[in-house]
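the four lines:
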Amino acid sequence: MQLGIIGLGRMGGNIARRLMLNGHTTVVYDRNAAFVENLSQEGATGVADLPALVAALEAPRAVWVMLPAGAPTEDTITVLSGLLEPGDVIIDGGNTYYKDDIRRAHALLEKGLNYIDVGTSGGVWGLERGYCMMIGGDAEVVKRLDPLFDSLAPGMGNIPRTRDRKSDDDRAERGYIHAGPAGAGHFVKMIHNGIEYGMMQAFAEGFDILKTKSSESLPPEQRFDLNVADIAEVWRRGSVVSSWLLDLTADALASDPKLDGFSGEVADSGEGRWTIEAAIEQAVPVPVLSSSLFARFRSRQQSTYGDKMLSAMRFGFGGHVETPKK
Amino acid sequence: MQLGIIGLGRMGGNIARRLMLNGHTTVVYDRNAAFVENLSQEGATGVADLPALVAALEAPRAVWVMLPAGAPTEDTITVLSGLLEPGDVIIDGGNTYYKDDIRRAHALLEKGLNYIDVGTSGGVWGLERGYCMMIGGDAEVVKRLDPLFDSLAPGMGNIPRTRDRKSDDDRAERGYIHAGPAGAGHFVKMIHNGIEYGMMQAFAEGFDILKTKSSESLPPEQRFDLNVADIAEVWRRGSVVSSWLLDLTADALASDPKLDGFSGEVADSGEGRWTIEAAIEQAVPVPVLSSSLFARFRSRQQSTYGDKMLSAMRFGFGGHVETPKK
Amino acid sequence: MQLGIIGLGRMGGNIARRLMLNGHTTVVYDRNAAFVENLSQEGATGVADLPALVAALEAPRAVWVMLPAGAPTEDTITVLSGLLEPGDVIIDGGNTYYKDDIRRAHALLEKGLNYIDVGTSGGVWGLERGYCMMIGGDAEVVKRLDPLFDSLAPGMGNIPRTRDRKSDDDRAERGYIHAGPAGAGHFVKMIHNGIEYGMMQAFAEGFDILKTKSSESLPPEQRFDLNVADIAEVWRRGSVVSSWLLDLTADALASDPKLDGFSGEVADSGEGRWTIEAAIEQAVPVPVLSSSLFARFRSRQQSTYGDKMLSAMRFGFGGHVETPKK
Amino acid sequence: MQLGIIGLGRMGGNIARRLMLNGHTTVVYDRNAAFVENLSQEGATGVADLPALVAALEAPRAVWVMLPAGAPTEDTITVLSGLLEPGDVIIDGGNTYYKDDIRRAHALLEKGLNYIDVGTSGGVWGLERGYCMMIGGDAEVVKRLDPLFDSLAPGMGNIPRTRDRKSDDDRAERGYIHAGPAGAGHFVKMIHNGIEYGMMQAFAEGFDILKTKSSESLPPEQRFDLNVADIAEVWRRGSVVSSWLLDLTADALASDPKLDGFSGEVADSGEGRWTIEAAIEQAVPVPVLSSSLFARFRSRQQSTYGDKMLSAMRFGFGGHVETPKK
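prediction for all of em together
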């Protein structure tokens, strides 16, 4: 099957590669010509701009946009929608806010264009492991694109089947689902990322306790000098917390158990934030997911105005002096 | 009435002063001779050691220990218990863990000594405003010491009476209560401090949002340049959050609205921690009180091992590079 | 001064009354004719619809809208904006989302109308205590309306002045501020409510520990039978947590220490939710404010799907059986 | 190798079985004679009391105690310590508090007895998958018992090796570690369980949002009717949150997507609580781990005293009426 791909960064480039490895043809574009050139040498049809991309595709066209959420994606889709023909489909594989999907799908439908949102998990490992995909949009269109999704997905691999699972639809077992109408794909991916934040923070807090158990601020008889690399390793084998995130943690600790290579300033992305907003809209208590987001906010500040205010109050009622940082 | 006082720091010294202002006599000791000398000049009987203190008091003696919780208090009480006579009473006015009170009360009772724990709130303002006291121990002994508590307490002042309040015991309205048996006084004070942590953190977070609303990291049209000193001031008048902590906040912001005089590293004391442990023992969910404690822990660290681990995982699955702090 | 008031519920009715007590005249409307009739008998000019209200006011008119946030306020302002003349001012005294204020102010300005947002704290007590007001909008217009704000505000009363406070503007000390341009008033009020949530939850958690300390699920020697009404009362006198919320708590506990009159299902309003969204937009960690909101969400559910999932996992890995509620 | 096993419940019985399958011999005791009888028929030497167990073992003896933490384990070890001879070793495989291990190890050492604490993860799946073990105690003794641990552990299986891992000690890769001196094994296991709580709660909150996204309390255009069983299934394939807990979740949702089989009342065990206490002792902020514990506390209550207090305050300042549950 033929697919146009816009955005050939870490994700988009590998999506093109994985599709070509599976016998599909791709027409690729990136504003960085070097990326286009590289993929052309690997068998893709490289083009120099969006009109050329549209011209190179056979109708009904399918174009996968793999760009940062927000303006880059929005602007590209706006331009594309002026070039494509009724019956064509735009696939947004990025991390778009699901309410933007809903809005866009409505607007594009008026032009006869189809819009599919694909939440894509797999990161830099996707080329090798395949991509876990959560797809929103019209069921018929999703069905038409099935050969692409099937190739991008991990497949069943050697992961055991779930006991008692009964379903006529085996797509989930092969690594992709049609989650619902436009926006549903990115909604499910958004929640996936929210959970990811929580799991990561659970490991972070647990290992923080393990690490500080050797702190010299504790009395000697209360200290343990624990081997965090070994602990991550052993938990990979038969423990309840075994997970891919733990595998990655074990990787990191094997070569740098003190994690000196990292600053401790942790970025966050839209999905973590939108998850909390969705929870609030639905009145769902999410103390763990929100705490995980807040820990990242806090990691990027040396001190907060709020903390200073605590000191100011303590000085006010108790005469406690907590002086400025030197 | 006559009272021995051990520990003449910020709290103990002013307790002696407030009692003398109200016609009581005090016998005072501190290992810092200068503190003893100062209070002697204000009318107290200064003594040079614990035996002298005990000798200077008439039986049945009452000795108020106002020292840091833990070893200083414990050791002093141990020595005192060897010097006092049956019927005497030791008052622990510090911030002792209530389980230590229970243990001590039992041990001292075997020697015929009484033990009273007094949770004392009021800080540096107590001399002027009076001390809010939560008292644990034998009811008869508490009654015997009533003249002291009555003088130390703030009294009704101009604080309006609570509607519908019906009680034969007006001590609470005058600023002190007999909370229950040994330990109950410090237990109630401990919870008081736990609540204090939560209220402080609520203000800290709220003002942090107000302050960062002027941040240049926001788009200009989303910014407000708010006057935090005026906001604290106006909330003192008729708003739902009016409180003594807000008064102190308004004090601090009036002279230093950026709070540059503070480092943002905030200490915590035993009571905040013990409150969480009590909640866990009783299976009470306390997300606010615990979050307040954790915010203080976090304020004292530049970065955490846990945060670095988040970055390590992010690098592992997504190739995100979060480099070391320079 | 003359003011039109739309919405004569708990807040709007008393605002009219407090203004009239201070020599102002009011023209009042409510879709409930009985409310209009009542206030007419107290001296207001009652009208039957919005055109009549506009007709009864002298230009430049000032109309205070005191309705539930969202559609009721929005629709009323839309109608009003078609009736008023350039130079007139609409005051939104409700709990509008501050971004709606910004939008509205821009739209109304195109018609030559002024828009003022007033965050109003004081609840059912405002008639007697006065209203604490946080005002957003054009400075000149706020100045023009000053006689109204001055009368509605509590004034300095017997609340002591803040030490070190230096300001040419004494409005904060009298209970109202001009916080900034349109939206700033409701923004500050929103944060006020966020803080209020946090303080309330701090008290709730602390008293929950005090209450459960007498629980029969604890071993007898660990129990204290604490008098929560006395504890609330004593903390009002000289303690660090003294506050209006504590006064209200003491009121409630004086007549119903077990709080049997309440279900434990707690509503939340927009402001608590918007506060968290503002914090997320500004990357401010707000664990206490968010926990307070989530506690209310949780209070309204008997069990959550999430909790059931925990049980399902526990059954999965450990064979733990947690059966359905009867 | 020969091992005595006391406690033949879910864990102890299967430990005996897995050892026998691997060629070891066991001498087994449980106060429930039926359990002893069952294992005897599977090849174990069943005994009727502790003296018989000790008599049936060759010196130096090794006795694995697999009982509930607290009194059952403590009492059994006390009796055992009176029966064993210098050089013998007691293994506590349960969920003992690590400070109890430290105390016990000291006490037993005075009698010449060795004490080994083994944190054992694997639950009902251990017989088949093997047990992940975290071991504390004297290195030589742990070495002597290695044949047992080697047989109980899962081994490398088909789990890929960690990149860059360099270690002379391959025990972690085979599923067990010598974590440190007495107590270190249970300490590491305790933190494991703390992390487990956090991960579980992250999934619970995320799926709660997914589930309530179909709630009729949302406007129709904001709803998605998501298939939670498919979502859990697809995330098992290539997503970042893939984990054993997710596998179990998929199991549960495959047969009961509404989770109607569960009440939503979730138990907690000592380890979750002790993890928070350890964090507090070490001043580590653990918002996620504590929130997870508190969610379980909350799940077991229909309403809290704290929630009622919130309603009482809301009534106090705003006249909001939140009536008793019917």
